[in-house]
Design brief:
This protein is α+β, with helices and mostly antiparallel strands and about 240 residues long. It contains nine helices and five strands, in the order ααββαβαββααααα. It is globular.
Amino acid sequence: MEDHTRLSLSLNSLRELKHPEELDQALSQICTLFGLTHMTFLVVRTGISSVSHPFYCSTYPRDWVQTYLACGYFDIDPVIDIIRTGFLPVDWSTLPQRSPEAVRFFEEAQCHGIGPNGLTIPVRGANGERCLFSVTSDVSKAQWSSLCMSSVHDLHVLSHYLHEKVLALTGLREAARYRDLSRRERQCLQLLAKGKIYKQIAAALGISEISVRLHIRSARGKLGAQTSHQAVAKASFLELINF
């Protein structure tokens, strides 16, 4: 299946959801599309509530989720700290696991079928929202590396789309208004969504690479997006572009 096809199918399935309770099943279906074992989306905090970790959706086994919550693993899970690192995906193999608690935590997670491979993408909203999107797999290291390379663009867009969808379904964010995009801004985001780089977008549209950068920067400003991936996700969520 072509990369943009599985991303399109994933976003279309999320677009149809009407209730938060439907998210777990949707993530399970998306896992199958990407050849992953598990997916989890965690709202760490929002801009309108002081409650920590107010919502999550996940394909993790129920017994692991119950164990995680009962033991208060939010306090020792190194994955949670990724929210402080920026915008880029973080492979779990690079996380510090020096403390005995962290080592035991990952060992217990693997006993519940989580991992051993994992990738987490931090998502930051314009209104102070902080979320984490994590995916896991039990394939070999070589297969995992190949899977990450072929999927990271789509997963990055997907993480931001989930951010929009989850906060909209749960009411954890006030509705925002966005300025409409110009035709060129939509075209640039449409091609960016398909994995094209700026040089390729410029060639496809017959404009300069500098113009492409300006259009995407303008679109980001109008959408309140901090990154290009977030702009693509927001434009898709608002149905300003199609996959």
